[in-house]
Amino acid sequence: MHACAVSKVDGPAVTYSTCDGYHYLCHPHHRDPGRRVMKSQWAIERKEECTTFCETRRMASQDDPAGVWYIGQDAYVVIGQDQERMAFFREPVNPNDPWHGYPVGGTRARGRKRMPPDSLILSWLKTGHVSRHVADKIRRGVL
Protein backbone atom coordinates (compact mmCIF):
# COMPACT_ATOMS: atom_id res chain seq x y z
CA MET A 1 0.00 0.00 0.00
CA HIS A 2 1.30 3.45 -0.83
CA ALA A 3 0.18 7.00 -0.16
CA CYS A 4 -1.49 9.25 -2.70
CA ALA A 5 0.89 10.47 -5.40
CA VAL A 6 0.05 12.76 -8.31
CA SER A 7 -0.06 10.73 -11.51
CA LYS A 8 -1.58 13.25 -13.94
CA VAL A 9 -2.36 16.97 -14.05
CA ASP A 10 -4.77 18.12 -16.74
CA GLY A 11 -5.48 21.81 -16.14
CA PRO A 12 -7.41 22.05 -12.86
CA ALA A 13 -8.03 18.27 -12.76
CA VAL A 14 -5.52 16.27 -10.72
CA THR A 15 -5.43 12.48 -10.76
CA TYR A 16 -3.68 10.53 -8.03
CA SER A 17 -2.37 7.00 -7.86
CA THR A 18 -3.78 5.83 -4.57
CA CYS A 19 -3.70 3.14 -1.97
CA ASP A 20 -4.04 -0.37 -3.35
CA GLY A 21 -3.49 0.82 -6.93
CA TYR A 22 -6.71 2.80 -7.44
CA HIS A 23 -6.82 6.06 -9.35
CA TYR A 24 -8.61 9.04 -7.86
CA LEU A 25 -9.64 12.23 -9.70
CA CYS A 26 -9.89 15.47 -7.75
CA HIS A 27 -12.64 16.80 -10.00
CA PRO A 28 -12.41 20.55 -10.63
CA HIS A 29 -16.22 20.97 -10.39
CA HIS A 30 -15.91 20.38 -6.64
CA ARG A 31 -13.21 23.08 -6.27
CA ASP A 32 -14.71 25.84 -8.41
CA PRO A 33 -16.49 28.52 -6.34
CA GLY A 34 -18.45 29.47 -9.48
CA ARG A 35 -20.18 26.08 -9.35
CA ARG A 36 -20.96 26.21 -5.62
CA VAL A 37 -24.71 26.55 -6.23
CA MET A 38 -24.82 23.26 -8.16
CA LYS A 39 -21.81 21.31 -6.86
CA SER A 40 -20.62 20.78 -3.31
CA GLN A 41 -17.11 22.13 -2.71
CA TRP A 42 -14.23 20.53 -0.81
CA ALA A 43 -12.75 22.52 2.09
CA ILE A 44 -9.72 20.24 2.35
CA GLU A 45 -6.61 20.15 0.16
CA ARG A 46 -6.51 17.84 -2.87
CA LYS A 47 -4.04 15.42 -1.30
CA GLU A 48 -6.20 15.22 1.84
CA GLU A 49 -9.21 14.52 -0.40
CA CYS A 50 -7.30 11.59 -1.89
CA THR A 51 -6.19 10.41 1.56
CA THR A 52 -9.83 10.54 2.71
CA PHE A 53 -10.73 8.33 -0.26
CA CYS A 54 -7.98 5.86 0.72
CA GLU A 55 -9.16 5.78 4.33
CA THR A 56 -12.69 5.16 3.09
CA ARG A 57 -11.57 2.32 0.80
CA ARG A 58 -9.72 0.63 3.70
CA MET A 59 -12.82 0.84 5.94
CA ALA A 60 -15.29 0.24 3.11
CA SER A 61 -18.29 -1.87 3.47
CA GLN A 62 -20.02 -1.94 0.11
CA ASP A 63 -23.50 -1.18 1.43
CA ASP A 64 -24.14 1.20 -1.47
CA PRO A 65 -23.66 -0.37 -4.92
CA ALA A 66 -22.86 3.05 -6.43
CA GLY A 67 -19.79 3.72 -4.26
CA VAL A 68 -18.42 4.20 -0.76
CA TRP A 69 -19.15 6.65 2.06
CA TYR A 70 -16.89 8.61 4.40
CA ILE A 71 -17.62 10.15 7.77
CA GLY A 72 -14.93 11.04 10.28
CA GLN A 73 -15.10 9.76 13.87
CA ASP A 74 -18.48 10.96 15.17
CA ALA A 75 -18.63 13.55 12.37
CA TYR A 76 -16.12 15.93 13.98
CA VAL A 77 -14.20 16.72 10.79
CA VAL A 78 -15.63 19.35 8.41
CA ILE A 79 -14.56 18.50 4.86
CA GLY A 80 -16.83 20.71 2.74
CA GLN A 81 -17.29 24.46 2.23
CA ASP A 82 -20.91 24.23 3.46
CA GLN A 83 -20.02 22.39 6.68
CA GLU A 84 -20.32 18.93 5.11
CA ARG A 85 -18.99 16.15 7.32
CA MET A 86 -19.64 13.21 4.99
CA ALA A 87 -18.45 12.39 1.49
CA PHE A 88 -19.57 10.01 -1.20
CA PHE A 89 -17.05 8.42 -3.56
CA ARG A 90 -18.67 7.17 -6.75
CA GLU A 91 -17.41 3.90 -8.18
CA PRO A 92 -16.53 4.35 -11.85
CA VAL A 93 -18.70 2.54 -14.39
CA ASN A 94 -15.60 1.69 -16.39
CA PRO A 95 -13.02 0.03 -14.10
CA ASN A 96 -10.22 1.84 -15.96
CA ASP A 97 -11.63 5.26 -15.05
CA PRO A 98 -10.63 7.00 -11.81
CA TRP A 99 -12.88 7.24 -8.77
CA HIS A 100 -14.07 10.68 -7.70
CA GLY A 101 -16.01 12.02 -4.74
CA TYR A 102 -17.69 14.99 -3.21
CA PRO A 103 -18.82 16.34 0.17
CA VAL A 104 -22.41 15.52 1.20
CA GLY A 105 -24.73 17.14 3.74
CA GLY A 106 -23.89 20.22 5.80
CA THR A 107 -26.05 23.26 5.14
CA ARG A 108 -27.16 21.49 1.95
CA ALA A 109 -28.46 18.51 3.94
CA ARG A 110 -32.19 19.30 3.84
CA GLY A 111 -33.76 17.72 0.80
CA ARG A 112 -30.61 15.98 -0.38
CA LYS A 113 -31.03 12.98 -2.59
CA ARG A 114 -27.90 11.06 -1.66
CA MET A 115 -27.79 9.48 1.80
CA PRO A 116 -25.85 6.54 3.19
CA PRO A 117 -27.86 3.32 3.33
CA ASP A 118 -29.39 2.63 6.73
CA SER A 119 -27.37 -0.59 6.96
CA LEU A 120 -24.15 1.46 6.76
CA ILE A 121 -25.36 3.97 9.37
CA LEU A 122 -26.17 1.02 11.63
CA SER A 123 -22.70 -0.43 11.03
CA TRP A 124 -21.07 2.91 11.95
CA LEU A 125 -23.20 2.99 15.09
CA LYS A 126 -22.41 -0.62 16.10
CA THR A 127 -18.66 -0.10 15.69
CA GLY A 128 -18.71 3.15 17.67
CA HIS A 129 -17.67 5.21 14.66
CA VAL A 130 -20.69 7.47 15.20
CA SER A 131 -22.87 8.10 18.25
CA ARG A 132 -26.63 7.50 18.29
CA HIS A 133 -27.09 11.29 18.14
CA VAL A 134 -25.01 11.56 14.93
CA ALA A 135 -26.71 8.48 13.40
CA ASP A 136 -30.12 10.05 14.07
CA LYS A 137 -29.00 13.33 12.46
CA ILE A 138 -27.85 11.45 9.35
CA ARG A 139 -31.16 9.57 9.12
CA ARG A 140 -33.16 12.81 9.51
CA GLY A 141 -31.06 14.43 6.79
CA VAL A 142 -29.68 17.21 8.99
CA LEU A 143 -26.00 16.26 8.92
Give a written overview of the molecule.
The protein is α+β, with helices and mostly antiparallel strands and 143 residues long. It is 22% helix and 21% strand. The protein has three helices and six strands; from the N terminus they run βββαβββαα. It has a three-stranded antiparallel beta sheet, with helices on one face. It has a three-stranded antiparallel beta sheet with strand order 4-5-6, with helices on one face. α2 (118-126) runs antiparallel to α3 (132-140). The mean pLDDT is 86.
Which secondary structure elements does this structure contain, and how are they paired or packed?
Elements: E1 5-10, E2 13-17, E3 23-26, H1 46-59, E4 67-71, E5 86-90, E6 100-104, H2 118-126, H3 132-140
Antiparallel strand pairs: 1-2, 2-3, 4-5, 5-6
Helix pairs in contact: 2-3
In short:
This protein is an alpha+beta fold and 143 residues long. It is 22% helix and 21% strand. Strand 1 (5-10) and strand 2 form a beta hairpin.
